[in-house]
Amino acid sequence: MRISSDLFSAFLKCHTKCWLRAAGEPASGNAYAEWVKSQHRSYHATRIERLLSETPKGEVAVSPSPENLKAAKWRLAANLTAHARLNTCVLESEVHAVERAPSEGRGRPAQFIPIRFIFANKLGADDKWLLAFDTCVLSEVTGRKISWGKIIYGDDHNIVKLKMADLSGEVRKCIERIAALLSSPAPPDLVLNRHCCECEFQARCRQKAIEADDLSLLSGMSEKERKKLHSKGIFTVTQLSYTFRPRRRPKRIRDKREKYHHSLKALAIREQKIHIVGSPELKIDGTPIYLDVEGVPDRDFYYLVGVRIGSGDSAVQHSLWADTAAEEGKIWREFLRILETVKKPVLIHYGSYETVFLNRMGERHGKPPEGSAAAKTIKTAVNLLSVIFGRVYFPAPSNGLKEIAVHLGFRWSDPTLTGTQTIRWRHEWEASRAHFQKLSLVTYNSDDCKALDVIVSKLIELKQAFSSVEHSLREEVVDTTTLKRERPYGFKRNTFLFPELNVINRAAYWDYQRERIYVKSHANLKRARTPSERPPQVIAPNKTIECARPRSCPKCTSTRFFKHAKYSKTIFDLKFMSYGIKRWVTRYRFHRYQCQRCGAVFQPEETRWGKGKFGSEIMAYSVYLNIELRLPQLRIASKLGFRLGSSAIGNFKADAAENYKETFHALVNRLCNGRLLHVDETKVSLHDRDGFVWVFANMEDVAYVYSDTRDGDLVQTMLKDFKGVLVSDFYAAYDSIRCPQQKCLIHLIRDLNDDLLKYPYDEELKQLALAFTVLLKPMIESIDRYGLKSHFLKKYLVSVERFYRQISECNLQSETAVKVKERLEKNRDKLFTFLSYDGVPWNNNNAEHAVKPFAALRRIIGGVTTEKGLRGYLVLLSLCQTCRYMGVDFLDFLRSGEKDIHAFADRRRGRKRRFGCALESPSNSPPPACPI
């Protein structure tokens, strides 16, 4: 396999170009590429002639034989063709010149320094790599290490000496990649890049990219982004267009610029409509001046400044031309004088090239006076590209001036002329001074200014149209805020790639698991499923109560007291009846008494209701509506039959939370001292900040605990003495808790399924996921048949050992499969704990199910409650969910006045409660640290 310096140069630019050259593909032609080659040949010949004239004739060799380089006596060799073999490759390099440094003493051989000529006035990274390739070939030919090389470049014949040792290793790696590329019978994946405008295969590659609808048609997309999309099975612009999802931006970043979405650009191309993100922000308060500059980049020389003043047919065009670099200052001063003559000028340009022009001209030839119209105009110049980028998506492959203007209907006088071609035309004009070439450049520059005018007019039209309720551009313009938003992260049914995964997932649903599996091994759940049969409670009718005289003074027990004054108290309450609820008002009439012995003032004992005017029934019903039925406080206040404000309902909730605080601590204590605990966490928004709510649950109790952060300090403190089995997701904070743990396998298989859908062509990932599915499915079938009993599950431990032994022997190449394997091995001791313990589930379904009531409540209170208010909600929600798990009515519990839910449940069942598992009584041990 032959690798020449020509192929090496092509590989640095584009892999496809390298392969096409090696395969002998006929070039479609590119005027700029041919001109660059002719410039290199001319510069090469000129520099060789100059070097030879500067060197004595006896020390010069032209096209010497590379076989006798070690014995050479010449000082300078020109046009040396060197061949060398490196592994299976034959390297060939056309070394422009070689300088031979004589030996500096015995044992120190002569040194060879390769020289390369570059006609441009600036060096690029590829030029250094080409010199390194020459060095590598020459080093193989001579068998000597070559440490230095030279590049002679530019009009001034500048010389730069480069150290080659740092690049030699990288060049050899690059040669290996070229060899692998050329050994393939098919060309590499087509990728359009910035070099295409300089390539002789431009037309051929672009046509194939259009036929394939390739992603590289979208300029600005990086190679990393393309590979990421390819891994998801997205290879075309049309496929990418279906992935755009409009998202609601958070308030904190609503004022920041929206990031650029390639998928939205693809959607605009597919639908051939302009798509708007937000509102176009172009505002021109004055006379628009459109600026476009032409220059020679490698010389930093600007020779043509196009200035278009005004819009439409009445606009005035100025073309400021410089024949030489010495006249650059003259056209800059002319440009400043034009700015001074315009009333309220607004300078508009496209891209950063003009921005650099304005800065450099100010530094080279003087800035306009501070405070002048020209200085203000330059300072407030508008880069039209920054207005469009990320906000307006035209149905064009790129945001280039030409592509957008052509879409809007503008046409250039010479459609084939590009910015790259103007560099060639300028050099040819300098050589010939032909008038038609200068006229072509001026016309091209004027067309650029007109194109700017067209785009600005369109943006102003869009802004005016979108500011009105009904606009006439609905057929050709799409506002992304009107697009339907997808909600992929809500509670939903999952779609699984393997049917076996779907069977496993279905077996984890809360109702199915509780009613089909836990009931087989948990006696209390059987009783909870059986509805209690009790006669309806009979409530006394409405009446006025005359309070009886007390028997003695409550302070000194004296019976000698007299009536002090007569009072009445009205209590507003609800009456619960068998057929409904009725508003109920009770009036109490009583006297106050004063003791003759101690002077104390008191009243009958039955009147000690506190300072409030509402009874316990209305308070209980209000809390029930707010917590269990999740009604907002304002709606509750309007439905209770009294004139209540939301503050009264809030007071009911706060009083109830304070009343049941000890009950909540008892729940937390039971959970943290039990033999099984499910834990999960979720985010909540408060009035002034964000926080997190931790959910602790088992099959009978639930507790919600607030924390300011998601770090593991809270859960680690509460569970420091926990000895049971902890069931959780894969959050790292749980790993530091010293107890047996079971990680949620549902989380794992859903992540596996997401990876399978994300990388549908990853066969290693499919095999790994299928092996795990085959391992898990029989376990789930046994649980479905016998329940969570280790007697029937321990036999699968052998299968687990076999599975891990097999995956440890696998040599995986896929990055995703390797990550899955590492995850399985890291959590090996926590994935199959349920096989060794009775009653331990293989998923965290119980905690996740407990999160749902809080998530529903969060939609009502999120963002408007304070930390104190949230803690009250969590106390009452813990009681509500525990009542539901225990099979008792939350409202009945609130109305009963009972503080112990388990005692209340036992009394309702008409017998003493017996626990299904040995738990320490809450009264015998203090509750753990809990921020209530």
Number of domains: 5
Q: Using DSSP, what is the number of strands?
A: 24
* Percent range for β-strand residues: 15-25%
Radius of gyration from CA coordinates? 42 Å
CATH architecture of the largest domain: 2-Layer Sandwich
Q: What name does the CATH topology of the largest domain carry?
A: Nucleotidyltransferase, domain 5
Q: At the first level of CATH, what is the class of the largest domain?
A: Alpha Beta
Largest sheet properties = 7 strands, mixed
What do you see in this structure?
The protein is of the alpha/beta class and 932 residues long. The chain folds into five domains: 2-182, Alpha-Beta Complex (Lambda Exonuclease, Chain A), CATH 3.90.320; 287-481, Nucleotidyltransferase, domain 5; 499-520 and 745-835, no CATH class; 531-659, no CATH class; 660-741 and 844-924, Nucleotidyltransferase, domain 5 (2-Layer Sandwich), CATH 3.30.420. It is built from 34 helices and 24 strands. The longest helix is centred in the middle third of the chain and has 33 residues, at 435-467.
